Each structure stands twice: as structure tokens, then as C-alpha cells.
Amino acid sequence: MTASSPMVLSLLLFASLTALLVLAPRASSPPLPLPLPVVVGDEEAPPAAGGGAAGSSGGGAGVEEGPEDLALSRRVTLDASEGAAVASKVAFMFLTNSDLTFAPLWERFFAGHADRFNVYVHADPAVRLRLPPTPSFRGRFVAAKPTRRGDPSLIAAARRLLVAALLDDPANAYFALLSQHCVPLHSFPRLYEALFPPKAAHHHRLPSYIEVLAGEPQMPARYVARGDDAMLPEVPFDRFRIGSQFFTLARRHAVLVVRERRLWRKFREPCLPESQDSCYPEEHYFPTLLDMADPAGCTRYTLTRVNWTDSFEGHPHTYAAPEVSPRLIAELRQSNSSTYEHMFARKFAPDCLGPLMAIADTVIFKD
Ligand SMILES: *[C@@H]1O[C@H](CO)[C@@H](O)[C@H](O)[C@H]1NC(C)=O
Ligand SMILES: *[C@@H]1O[C@H](CO)[C@@H](O)[C@H](O)[C@H]1NC(C)=O
């Protein structure tokens, strides 16, 4: 029995060191009783830690992994077990740089299912959120760094959310990345049953829902955005993939992502100044990595519907209040896949909250 105590002691020491690292930059936050990576944020997102706006050129400041990021992802390697005895949960990970306007809609989606989900928020610390978090979001802010579009800081933020969610609750079995512009298209039970089919006896081979595409017209330009051979030898062009950053990963793939360094080192390299229009590393890193690591474990479909018709400067169509209707919800749910439905949709402008709430119970959560 006593033989195991040095092991236990060193684990405890490691855990408390990690806790120090996580909490140190936020000395003003009340200390947490456990080494949770979740930072308590009461009414607002924590103020900017590193000061000022997102980094200048050459990779945003948020790309750098501090000792806290590294220590946390190392802990994940100790904690990679699957199949907890309690009910499996879904981790909803919100990546945002503005108010969580749709929080009331998500609250209605979550209501009555508290034992089946966890929320995590990565809020760009350069932006002050004006809306106070609603109950499910309160105290669920992870230690965040600045994020910028077309820059690997979005990948770094997603990795940070995954680490926080992996460490926070071993029952988290799926990890859904969402933005402040995402809305649910179905009820929580419908999502849960789709993710955890009652007939699937073993949850350890559940698939990841991530879009994985090849042969898209913009890919040659995206591939050379850091220079002609910059991705070699790790990523030859024929292994390079594209897909939406809004994935829902199974736990084993979430662990794989946060432990991965080889491709991440490549994708975090800044794009050439003349290639900024082709610089969307967050649309390539995850599909490329997962298609290399476990192609059979990915559905290749995303659960999050988006409308690219008449897209403008890389932004998809943003729905405005007058467009919200029961018909729109029905259209957005339709998928080209016969197997997978869309469970979420983007992008919705803040003024859609009222019209969406008005049809929440009668349309969106009625399925
Ligand atoms: C997609 O957006 C276009 C406008 O860019 C719109 O006309 C079309 O109705 C939208 N499609 C769906 C399914 O909402
Ligand atoms: C379905 O496939 C068609 C043809 O490839 C495409 O135009 C359409 O956008 C797809 N719809 C969805 C919901 O992905």
C-alpha cells in the first residue's frame, strides 16, 4: 500500500503546481478549491491579461503557448481515460470575441439536462463582454488569450478550450466548438440521442463530426500561404484538407489534438504578407490532422450548417431577424448526408434572438 504513496504525492504535487500556473495570472479571481482550468468570471469576461489589442503581424499574441498551456496539455496525457461510469456529457465550447447574445436560447436548450452537459467559454480578453453571463455560462470562462481571424490564434483558443474541457470533467465525451453566432436547430435530447445512439453498446468508438474536404478550388493557394514548400515534409499537398472549424470531436480525438505538436508547429507559422487572403489555418489544421490520424473515425460532416451563398470576404451569409422563420429552421436542418442531420447553424446576427426565442418551443426544440 505504502509503495504507492510517492506516486500519489508526486501526482498531488504536479496537480497543485498546475493549479498555481493556471490561477497565477488571475490573482484577482477567487481561488478555486480544485485545480480546475476553468476561471471564475462573475459578471464579465476577465479583463485583458496581456494588455491591448490582438497582436500585430506574424501570428497573434494568442498563438504563444505559455507554461500554463503546456502544463495543462501535459496533464491531459495523464488523464486520457475514456468511459466514465457516470452518464456521458457534451462539452459546449464557445469561442467568442463579443457578447453571447444567444445565451437565453441556449439556456432554454440546456434546461432540464444539467447532468448531461458542461459549458466552456473562451472570450477574447481584448474585448469586454457587456452582457452578464446567464447561469449556464457563469464561471465557465477559461483562461483566454487574444484571437484574430485568419491567424493560428483561433486554433490555439480551440486547443485551450479542449484542454480545459478534458481536464474539467472526465464524463465529457463529446466536444462541440461553437461561436457566439451559432444557434441550436434541435432539442437537447435529439442531439444527445444522435451523439450517443441508445443501441451503441460501446461509446469508445464514437465518431467525430468534422468536415473533411479535398480538391476544393482554394486549396492550392491555401497550401502555399506560408511559402511553396513550407508545409513539407509533415503535410504533403495530397494530405492537406479543408473543412469548417466548427467540429464536434469525440473524446479520443480531443486528446489527440491537445497532445499533438508536429502539425501544430507547422500550422502556427504565420502566412506570408502577400498571402493574407489565403490564410485560414483553423480551416485546415483540424481536418488535416484528423484525416491523417483516424480517417475512419470521422464522419467528414460537420453538425453545424452554414450558408456560403454570396459569401463576402470569407464571411458566410449572416441571417438577420426578418429571415428567421419556421421554414428557415426546416431548411437549415436538411443535410446532404442521409445519416447525419445538422444540429447547429451559423451565422446569426444578434437581432435574431427575439424571433428565435419566439419559435424556440414550437419549432426549434420540437422534434
Ligand atoms: C443563403 O443565403 C442566401 C443569401 O446570401 C439566401 O438567398 C438563401 O435563402 C440562404 N439559404 C438558406 C437555406 O437559408
Ligand atoms: C448539398 O450539395 C450540393 C451539391 O454539392 C450543394 O450545392 C449544397 O450546398 C449542399 N447542401 C448542404 C446543406 O451542404
From TrEMBL:
Pfam family, one: Branch
Species for this entry: Triticum aestivum
Subcellular compartments: Membrane
PANTHER family reported for this sequence: CORE-2/I-BRANCHING BETA-1,6-N-ACETYLGLUCOSAMINYLTRANSFERASE FAMILY PROTEIN-RELATED, OS07G0158800 PROTEIN
Name of the protein in question: Uncharacterized protein
Membrane protein topology class: Single-pass type II membrane protein
Annotated signal peptide: 1-29
Keyword Signal: yes
Biased composition (Gly residues): 49-63
Disordered: annotated segments: 43-66
Keyword terms: Glycoprotein, Glycosyltransferase, Membrane, Signal, Transferase
GO CC aspect terms: membrane
Any GO MF annotation of the entry: glycosyltransferase activity
Gene name linked to the record: LOC123052838
Family annotation (InterPro entries): BC10-like, Glyco_trans_14
Source superkingdom: Eukaryota
Main localization category: membrane
Keyword Signal among UniProt keywords: yes
